[in-house]
Amino acid sequence: MKRVGILLSGRGSNFEAIAQRIDEGKLDAEIAVVVSNIETAPGLRRARERGLDVAFVSSKGLAREAFDQQVVDILHKRRVDLVCLAGFMRLLSPSFIRAFPNRILNIHPSLLPAFPGLQAQRQALEYGVKVSGCTVHFVDEGLDSGPIISQAVVPVLDGDTEESLSARILEQEHQIYSKAIQIVLNGQIRIEGRRAVPIS
User: Fold this and answer.
1) In this structure, which topology does domain 1-101 adopt according to CATH?
2) What is the separation, in whole angstroms, between the first and last Cα of the chain?
3) In CATH, what number does 106-200 get?
4) Model confidence pLDDT, tens digit, residues 121-136
5) For the chain, which residues make up each domain, given as ranges?
6) Is 155 in a helix, a strand, or coil?
7) Could you tell me if 38 and 44 are in contact, meaning their C-beta atoms sit under 8 angstroms apart?
8) Is 174 a catalytic residue?
9) Equal CATH topology for 1-101 and 106-200
10) Which residue in the list 76, 108, 137, 174 is annotated as catalytic?
11) Which of 30, 62, 71, 176 lies at a CB distance of 3.0 to 4.6 Å from 66, suitable for a disulfide?
C-alpha cells in the first residue's frame, strides 16, 4: 500500500478528510506520518488522537533549507511515496522539491492561476469574480504554480463574506483532494510541460 506524508500548520481539516476517506475504503493509501511546524496545531493533535505517527519540527532559528532537510529526513525515514500539503504555511525549498520530484501535492482555495498565495478567498471577493473554487496541483518551485490535477468550481454569491465563501470552498476541497491523491498514487497521470495529462 502506498504511503502518504501529510504536512500541516493549522486545523488540519483536509488531513481529516483524507484520513476519513482512507477509513471508509475510498482512498487506497495509508498515512505514514503527519508533520507540523506548529507544535500546538489542532491538526497535529487530531492526528495523535487517531493514533498516527506525528512529528513536530520547529523552524525557529533555522534557515529554510535546514528546516526542510529535517522534514525530508522524517519523510524518507517513513518511506513516504507521496507528500500532501494540507494547510502547510511554508514555501518549500528547491532541495525539498528535488527530494520528491512530482510527488508533492497541494490544494489551494482558488481556481489557479487566479489568486495564488495567501487570502485567496478575500482576493476573489475583492476582485468581484462570479465563480471561485479550489485546485489540486503538483508543487514546483513557484508559488501555487505547478501543473493542475483537478479543480472544483464554487459560485460566488452576492452576500458572500470571506468566511461563507471559504466554508463552501472547503467542502469541495474535501471532495477533490482525496480523488486527486488516488489518481496520482495509481499512476494515472503524467506531466507534459505545464499540463498534468490523464493516462487512459
Assistant:
1) Rossmann fold (3.40.50)
2) 22
3) 3.40.50.170
4) 999 999 999 999 999 9
5) 1-101, 106-200
6) strand
7) yes
8) no
9) yes
10) 108
11) 62
